[in-house]
């Protein structure tokens, strides 16, 4: 009996016959190869890539120019700060050199005589007025406070 409690494994028809050979049918499959891209399409792709490279190059070049300008601006700002510090120091020195007391001492040292006390005070007041009204430094000119005898 080939059917025992639902099992067909014992079916004699299913047993391989050692004398039978398994035949394999060989089939050939035709492979279609895609043709290459047309020349116009290749040129379009090449043009697109070249255009992207040129745009990227221009952008990078502009960023480099901006960076260079910023570096120059920072350098100039540093130089401006140094020059402003020098200017303030020179202004203080000019004010110190233009003080009436120092001018009197310098006049006495050089041998000038004050003829009248009131004349000396007038000269001192006029020197103060000049120094307060002028905003720029003079180039080393000094006013004679008194006349030479």
Low-confidence stretches: 135-149
Strand content: under 5%
- Gross morphology: rod-shaped
Helix content: 55-70%
| Annotation field: number of helices | 3
Separation of the first and last Cα atoms: 161 Å
Q: Oligomerization state of this entry?
A: single chain
Biggest sheet, in brief? Answer: none
Query: Mean pLDDT, nearest integer?
Result: 78
What's the count of strands? 0
* Structure classification: mainly alpha
**Radius of gyration, taken over Cα atoms and rounded to an integer in Å:** 53 Å
- What pattern of helices and strands is seen along the backbone? HHH
Region (Disordered): 124-149
Transmembrane segments: 43-67
Main location: membrane
Pfam families: DivIC
Q: What does this protein structure show overall?
A:
It is found in: Cell membrane. This is Cell division protein FtsL. Belongs to the FtsL family. Its main location: membrane. It comes from Paenibacillus plantarum. The protein is mainly alpha-helical. The protein has a domain at 39-111. 58% of the residues lie in helices and 0% in strands. It has 3 helices and no strands. The protein has helices spanning 39-97, 100-110, 117-133. The N and C termini lie far apart (161 Å). The model is unreliable at 135-149 (pLDDT under 50).
């Amino acid at each position: 009996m080939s059917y025992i409690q639902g099992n067909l494994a014992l079916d004699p028809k299913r047993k391989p016959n050692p004398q039978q050979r398994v035949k394999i049918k060989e089939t050939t499959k035709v492979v279609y190869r895609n043709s290459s891209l047309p020349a116009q399409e290749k040129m379009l792709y090449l043009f697109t890539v070249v255009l992207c490279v040129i745009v990227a190059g221009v952008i990078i070049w502009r960023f480099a120019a901006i960076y260079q300008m910023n570096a120059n601006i920072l350098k100039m700002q540093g130089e401006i700060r140094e020059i402003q510090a020098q200017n303030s120091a020179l202004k203080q020195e000019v004010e110190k050199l233009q003080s009436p007391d120092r001018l009197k001492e310098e006049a006495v040292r050089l041998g000038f005589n004050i003829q009248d006390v009131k004349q000396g005070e007038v000269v001192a007041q006029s020197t103060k007025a000049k120094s307060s009204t002028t905003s720029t430094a003079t180039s080393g000119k000094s006013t004679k406070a008194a006349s030479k005898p």
